[in-house]
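hey so i finally got around to running both of the ones u sent me last week. sorry it took forever, my laptop kept dying halfway thru and i had to restart like 3 times lol. anyway pasting them below in the order u listed, first the sequence line then the structure token line for each. didnt double check formatting much so if smth looks off just lmk and ill redo it

first one:
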Amino acid sequence: MFKHKILTLLLKLLATLPLPVVHYLGSALGWATYLSYKKYANLIITNLTLSQLNKDNVGLKKTLHCNISETGKSFLETFAIWFKDYSNLKKWYEGCTGWEHVESALAKGKGIIFLTPHLGCFEITSLYYGQFHPITVLFRPPRQNWLMPLISQGRERGKVNLAPANAQGVKSLLQALKRGEAIGILPDQAPHEGEGEWAPFFGRPAYTMTLASKLAKKSGAQVLMAFGERLANGRGYHIHIEPIISGGVSSPKLLNQEIEKAIAQCPSQYMWVYDRYKVRN
């Protein structure tokens, strides 16, 4: 318990640092982890190489080096965002492209399904939206119970609500959509066995969730792809929002194609270290 309190205190200190410093430290952490753990390094190299998003070895090496830094930044910025005063987070928002799609979807009254992959800063997108409108975000509860209060404190701010990844949580998502509100899902998160189907993801079979397509079909909600681009030199985040045409997530195969399109916009900021090709028990 004492160890957890010390660790929590250290993590909260991140929120007192300027974002450029957080990202500098995160970059150093990314490289230290990459150089120290062979399995970590191999996952990044393998997944990025097999994606074939780079035309040649020069481009691959450049993207790889950027991704090592960006992955470290992603880890540390999470805690800086969680513990930073909510009103001060506005200083880190550097614009949004595609907000008109949100307004159009809300006018239809059938709700919004935000798909936010492990791309850029996925912690910032729901908090950005939650400044203006209610959103219920699906999340997987941590294995270590002491982390749960920190997650709630960091994510449930503004008009953001959390829903656990279980039957009750899915019910909460449907209720939010019936109210014409938004929900948020990590569409590239590996689902538990029995909750997905195998579908190609950058040319390899990946066990892919079926939840997004089921919710879209049942609710008629507008599906939007969203991600928070991490700007250079700690300048903040730019939110990108794009609509997915009707039926665009009607199958895991089509869902993965939409995720691939999003990643192709900013491949250096995708979490290639995430094992997308596993099945959770």
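and the second one:
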Amino acid sequence: MTPEVSAIVVSHRSAAEASACVASLQRAFAEEGIAGEVVLVDCGSGEEEADRLRAIPADRHRLLPENRGYAGGVNAGLAQARASRLLLTNADIVFAAGAVTALLAAIRERTTGAAAPLAVWDSESKLRLPPGFAPGFFRDLAQLQSGRLRALDDRRFASFARAARRLWERGGRARHLSGAVLAVRRDVFDAAGRFDERFPFEYEETERKESQRRYRRRRYGRLGRSLLEKAERFPSPAHGVTRLALPSLPARPGAAVALSPNPSGLPFAAADLSEEFRLPDEVAAGLAPGPWYLTVFRTADGRPIQRFLWLKAPA
């Protein structure tokens, strides 16, 4: 029997996370009455990792000998998937009750190309992840020049905050979706084409830089790429930012706190400040060492109130 949905789980050195992801999908299929299949793809993690993945009871395993990145992993999974509706997911995702049903309902609408869920970062569901951050030349340039014109930075931040809160609280249309989880019909994929494997998700720092240069030139042309690279060489100083010894803030009714690795504060994950905020240990452990920016903003209109900087020390 052809399944209603094919879930493609892409893993790279994350067998433990993949096991939890597959278990949550199979639980959803059983409890929500969905005839689904799971295709588990690994991107060149090595034979020891492959043995762990083979022990995960997915419907099909596709263990690639080379690391083709997230894009290549999805494409390999698509070749194995049988359903007309697809669920693409990173391995470190655990699906909450009802999430799969809601995603499949969203893509029944022919006017909907793809759908993504509200995603949270911590086990207590307090820290909401950004719904997406649409690229564009002027947005990319503003990211690199943040701090020079604070009034402009505040307007950009407030606009993103209002849009993010609307999507978190009510859902709706979005210009851009985060790729961590995507539900999409196969006919949409066939029309748009497969993922471009020239822009992988997992790559070394040198490959990341080359991928960025290739992306900028393809999207903005040689001149646009050159302008962004010049702006990158002259970063703006961070003015009006208070240093934090620990990533925690007191309660502030009517406000929320945004967390971002970018000086602009965008895009961000956010938590409500109706009570004291302390970055969950499970989240902090996975963050890269270096600067992390916390912005307190008004929930009513998204306007920033105060900015903080926390430096995560190397492990």
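quick thing i noticed on the 2nd:
The chain is about 35% helix and 20% strand.
anyway thats it, ttyl
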